[in-house]
Amino acid sequence: MAQPLLVSAAALFNEQGQVLIAKRPLGSDQGGLWEFPGGKLAPYETGLQALRREIQEELGVEIQGARPLIKIHYTYPDKTVLLDVWRVQQFSGEPWGKEGQAIRWVSVRELSQFEFPAANRAIIRAVQLPEDYMITGDFADQSEALLRLQAALERGVRLVQLRAHHLDAEAYRQLAQSALEACKKAGASLMLNADPALLDQVDAAGIHLTGARLMAARKRPVPVGKWLGASCHDAASLQQAERVGADLVTLSPVQATASHPGQAALGWQNFQNLVNGALMPVYALGGLGPEDKNRVFGLGAQGVAGISRYW
Ligand SMILES: Nc1nc2c([nH]c(=O)n2[C@H]2C[C@H](O)[C@@H](COP(=O)(O)OP(=O)(O)OP(=O)(O)O)O2)c(=O)[nH]1
Ligand SMILES: [Mg+2]
Fold first, then answer.
1. Is 182 in the same domain as 274?
2. Which pLDDT tens digit goes with each residue over 86-109?
3. Confidence of residue 262 (pLDDT cuts 50, 70, 90)
4. Is it the case that residue 1 has pLDDT exceeding 70?
5. Do 107 and 22 belong to one domain?
6. Nearest-CA residue for atom 5 of ligand 1
7. What interface predicted TM-score (ipTM) does this complex get?
8. Pocket flag, ligand 1, residue 36 (CB < 6 Å)
9. Where is the Nudix hydrolase domain (predicted)?
């Protein structure tokens, strides 16, 4: 296969948390579609060097701080691109369309309303999703679960998976309804680790499929506009997640954990190789906490998911 075209691009954020998008000129590749500004690496440039140069050339701003957001290897009918996307929150200068292109600041929610090249689907998810994904752990009763949830929301958690395999369907539904109210008040998204049909009764952000539900799914089990998450452990489950249109996945166990004794750990090298082949944001799960985020960003992951260190 031909070498992929190496491209660096920036998700540039302003202080209001809006992200900058630019319109590709008509007549260019993917012309007329919106994009994250950036461009092709010159020979011998690193991704970050190309990013700095392209953002200066296209927007007239100087990047002061950037971290890896997501890498997407995507094959179009005529070419394969490797898009190396960075999250840029510190820069100097006021961006303007130096090459005559239209630019706009939009909220991350609004991003879904603009037309982007096909490779950008996963990038948009990565821009919209937070760095931490809390999975609920043990609790004695509903009130303890809600207290722990409330405390986590106050610590800043914005994506929560309600995992409670010991509850029957009715007890789970009741807890999910209360958890949803708490999450909505905090501006957080709630993922139900449950039968996708429960979304008809509990208007949560989405469904997180267990490994077994993922492998049994034939098509995307949730409507557009809801998130679909899935638990992956290897290349086959990542491929299946891609096939059913998952928006995000957890990949585990990166390290051995007390909650899943006896499961062999992937280790960092396998984790990185699997993330490189994934076409959606990947959360590292298994024995990790917030202090591991910088390491996992460097390996191409969205962030860290966890029970023990978050619950
Ligand atoms: N910059 C950017 N390119 C994208 C995005 N999504 C996507 O599929 N691409 C593709 C389109 C192009 O084939 C390639 C980027 O090339 P480019 O045209 O921006 O390269 P460049 O800025 O160096 O442009 P030029 O010097 O060739 O005019 O990656 C995106 O969000 N941003
Ligand atoms: Mg460009």
1. yes
2. 999 999 999 999 999 999 999 999
3. confident
4. no
5. yes
6. 35
7. 0.96
8. yes
9. 3-131
Under the banding of pLDDT at 50, 70 and 90, the label for residue 2 is confident
Distance between Cα 226 and ligand 2 center (Å): 31
- Which pair of tokens denotes residue 162? 């309600």
Interatomic CA distance for residues 240 and 90, integer angstroms: 37
Pocket test for ligand 1, best of 3, 5, 6, 7 (most atoms within 8 A of CB): 7
Pocket test for ligand 1, best of 8, 35, 57, 70 (most atoms within 8 A of CB): 35
For residue 83, give every residue at least 6 positions away whose Cβ sits within 8 Å of its Cβ, in sequence order, or none.
Answer: 7, 8, 9, 71, 72, 74, 119, 123
Q: pTM of this prediction?
A: 0.95
Q: Which residues pair with residue 159 across a beta bridge?
A: 189
Q: Does 78 fall in a domain?
A: yes
Ligand nearest to the CA of 8: 1
Residue 22 structural domain: 5-128
**CATH code, 138:** 3.20.20.70
Give the distance (Å) from ligand 2 centre to CA of residue 68.
Answer: 18
Beta strands at 80-92 and 62-75: parallel, antiparallel or unpaired: antiparallel
